[in-house]
Design brief:
8 strands, four-stranded mixed sheet, Glutaredoxin, single chain, alpha/beta
């Protein structure tokens, strides 16, 4: 194990083990301050996930007696968001499908809002008012911004007031700096008691925490059928369902996706084409420390929810990634182990602290998946894996996506293991006889 891999693994493991103590400290601090539960909602008017969250936040506040302060922030820099245009385009289509499934509002034909309308919306949000009023105003603004309704936006400005245009940018930048100091890097986040909860996707974790603290509320936010998603993935007997998944061996979310994809394959006979890509940092995309720490913490709680082992980490960056790619392309594909090899090797990386840059560990993980030591030794001497890895990266970019895991089935493509349950539900529905 390299010194760098060992150091990164040590930091991540210590960070994960510190979370329970941090929760306890925040609870003590809240009690000493009088017991009032407060959360911060970091918001952007041109972030689709912020608009969905703004619609649900008043229900959350009412259900649990939670005071939610909305804080408008500047857009993340390239370090936190290396592909802003692709992210926004994806977020718009993703939010429309989420809204349909959760009974929320987001137009299917939405387009990126103009800079002027976003600035005017933020000018309204920066005006001081009560937390309850801010939640109401945010939801109304989102409707106007995403429906490109200039008249509605002007009426909101007239009704609620706004700060001057010159104040907007400095205030947003100061708020974003505060977001970074608190330990995060993107909008659409709720911060409560030392932890971060992204969009509507992570509200169930916040609810569980509030209930552990003794509260009896219930948000009652659950997903339902999505006819739009079903139409995108639908197929016939002459066009069987086929799923492409782009993964990285260094991505904890990719690791979490593999057991879910294996289950999907086994239950539905779904053809799954696994397409590994190099990690973001090896593709020239930066990953700030705050982002890395949030991802590993979020992946840990997702792993616990899914019953997937996680938390004893050895970073595979460098030679380890090359070994994994070489064995995958040289051995796993040829033996029909496109899911089995990633399942074994990523479990080694993310829950067993196996060093895949170290041959004995790599051999152990490969043999567990059905690949012999001789095959492993031959594969890691062959650099031909670089060409298909490059092709996978280009295909991912061609889909308008950049992160992993990314999925494509029919005309539907999405980023994130969070979308696998919805995909599985719709595949089940479209697979049932009429």
């Amino acid at each position: 194990m390299s010194a760098k891999s060992r150091a990164i693994g040590t930091v991540l493991n210590a960070y994960l083990s510190s979370r329970p103590a941090k929760h306890a400290l925040y609870t003590v601090g809240r009690v000493l301050r009088g017991g009032r539960r407060r959360a911060r909602f970091y918001y952007r008017a041109d972030d689709p996930y912020s608009h969905l969250l703004a619609q649900v936040a008043p229900r959350l506040a009412g259900a649990y007696g939670l005071e939610i302060e909305i804080i408008p922030v500047a857009a993340p820099g390239v370090g936190a968001n290396p592909a802003p245009e692709m992210l926004l385009e994806h977020a718009i289509s993703d939010a429309a499908l989420l809204a349909e499934s959760y009974g929320l509002s987001f137009p299917r034909d939405a387009t990126p809002p103009s800079e002027d309308r976003v600035r005017r919306a933020h000018a309204v949000m920066l005006e001081r008012r009560t937390s309850e009023q801010q939640l109401q105003v945010a939801a109304e603004l989102g409707e106007a911004v995403w429906r490109d309704d200039g008249s509605a936006l002007a009426a909101i400005v007239e009704r609620y007031g706004s700060v001057s245009g010159e104040e907007v940018r400095p205030a947003l930048e100061a708020n974003y700096a505060a977001l970074e100091r608190a330990g995060h890097y993107q909008p659409g986040m709720i911060y409560y008691g030392g932890d971060w909860y992204w969009g509507i996707d992570r509200l169930h974790f916040l609810e569980e925490r509030l209930q552990r603290e003794g509260l009896q509320g219930r948000l009652d936010l659950s997903s339902g059928p999505s006819p739009a998603l079903a139409s995108m993935i639908h197929s016939s007997d002459s066009n069987p369902l086929r799923l492409e998944v782009f993964v990285s061996f260094r991505s904890p979310y990719s690791y979490l996706s593999i057991p879910q994809l294996r289950d999907l394959r086994d239950r539905h006979g779904l053809e799954i084409n696994v397409r590994p890509v190099l990690p973001m940092v090896m593709r020239g995309l930066p990953v700030p420390t705050a982002k890395r720490l949030y991802i590993v913490h979020d992946a840990k709680r997702e792993a616990d929810r899914l019953g997937i082992p996680f938390g004893h980490v050895c970073d595979p960056l460098g030679q380890g990634i090359g070994h994994c790619m070489a064995v995958f392309f040289g051995c796993a594909i040829g033996k029909g182990l496109e899911l089995e090899f990633p399942a074994s090797v990523m479990r080694g990386i993310w829950s067993e602290a196996r060093d895949v840059g170290h041959l004995p560990d790599l051999v152990f993980l490969a043999e567990r998946a059905g690949i012999s030591e001789a095959e492993v030794r031959a594969a890691i001497e062959d650099s031909s894996w670089k060409e298909p890895a490059k092709a996978n990266r280009e295909a991912l970019t061609g889909m308008g996506l950049w992160g992993v895991p990314s999925l494509r089935i029919g005309s539907y493509s999405s980023w994130g293991q969070d979308r696998i349950p919805a995909l599985a539900a719709e595949i089940t529905r479209v697979s049932q006889p009429a």
